[in-house]
Each structure stands twice: as structure tokens, then as C-alpha cells.
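Changelog note: in this version the structure field was regenerated for every chain. One regenerated record is shown below for reference.
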Amino acid sequence: MFHGSMVALVTPMREDDAIDWASLEKLVDFHVDNGTDAIVAVGTTGESATLSYQEHNDVVRQVVAFARGRVPVIAGTGSNSTREAIELTQAAKDAGADACLLVAPYYTKPTQEGLYLHYKAIANAVPIPQILYNVPGRTVCDIQPETVARLASISNIVGIKEATGDLKRAKEILERCGDKLDLYSGDDATAMEFILLGGKGDISVTANVAPRAMHEMCKLALAGQREKAEAINDRLMVLHKTLFVEANPIPVKWALYEMGLIPRGIRLPMTPLSEAHRPTIKNALRDAGVL
């Protein structure tokens, strides 16, 4: 349903940590102009964990408004509470989002049966395309391939963002699900190989700062043009790695600040990038041809 480079968009904030709506509009235009294939609003990179319920819905609504139908908008609506996830998903549908991305329930540590029933309940409650999001490094909850296969039989569960970076896992899900589910990488460093295996795209942190290059790399990988895709990916690898020198989205927000696209605000308990890492980020942006 959605293919290519899908940016996991930051939520720009002023230094008083209020959301900067003017910068958000500028970012949406930046991605439309540079070929980003879809925008994911209020995912992990968008600081969903520290936005209020009202702010969360407002950001989704504004990204949809700023996009003006020029690019699909996927709203992050996951929660560790099934009821809250349903409410957020319904609000995103009402706001005009094209799909929702639902992170595995964090902290609560459900069983695989609990995960299945959680996602089934949301899918049954809200008729909008839904993408599962597996990132056990942050949630301490791992959606196993057999559970993914069970969920693939639900008509409006259309994909999974698999952020483990485990290509064997991706291959197993592809074998179990076939054409019933689209797979998206959630790990920029392995995204090209993931797509060449049969994935449909990358929900990307790197795309925040290098949208055109990520679009081209994903497009080439989807076309099976390994050599050309590798040429771009090799240049971007410094960003794939450096944008995680501290917890996401700390480095990518600092990178966008260095590029003059957003203020330096980030919401506690996240803090601005450590001074020791700032030259590293700036050098990575230069090496990748962004600055």
C-alpha cells in the first residue's frame, strides 16, 4: 500500500519545549519537495511518548493539513493501553490520516496472545489501514513472526515496521505472510538489504536530513538495482550510524537544527545532544553531502 522512503518525522519544538507549528509546516514542505514517499507523524522520532494526548492529535491533524494530499500521512497511534490506542487511531482517522502505525505495547509486557488480541481489537474498532510496529529494543515486547502471520489475516492490518535490524526475521515474516502483509524496515543501516529481500520500504530516521537520497536509494532497491542503491547507501551509512550516537531523536533533532530547519528544542527527559557528539554529527552531515 505504501512504498519507498517514509520519514519518521520529528516534532519541532522551541527551546521552551512548545511545539513549533511554523517549523512543522516547513518540514512537511521540505519532504514533499524532496520526494519523500510518506510522512509518519508522531512516531518514536516524533516524541510521541512525551506529547500530551491533545498535542498528539493536534500534530497529526496539522501534518495532514500541511501535506494537503501531496503525500500520504501515517499517524503513530500505538499505546500500552488498548483503549487509548483505539482512541488515538480513531482520532487519526477523523483527522484524515491515510493509515496508522501502532507500536507494540510497551512496559506492560503482554503475551503473544495478548498482542494478537490487542491489535485485533484496534483493527476491528477503527476501519483504517494499520501497520504493526515491532521495536523490542525500546518496548521490551517482541511481536513474534507467528503472531504477525495471525494478524496478517485481518483485512485492515496491511503491514509491519520491523525495527530489529534482523534480516533473518524479515525473511521469516515474508515466508509466513507472503503478499498478505507489506514489510517495512525500521533500521536505516539494514534497510537497503531489507528491501532487496522483498520489503516495501523504510520508515526512516535518516530521511529527516537526507530525504532525496533516501527516496532514490529506496526506489532503486525496490527496482532490484543493487549496485546503484549501494552507491547511495554507502554515502548515507555515516548518517545511519551517527544519528544513533544518543537515543533517537536526540541526534536527528540536533542535525536538523544544524541544517537550520528547526529550533533546538526537545522535551524532557530527552536533552539536547551532548557537546562531545556535536562535531561528529556535523562531520557526518558533511560527509553525506547534506551540509
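Spot check on this record: The longest strand covers residues 157-162. The chain has a mean pLDDT of 97.
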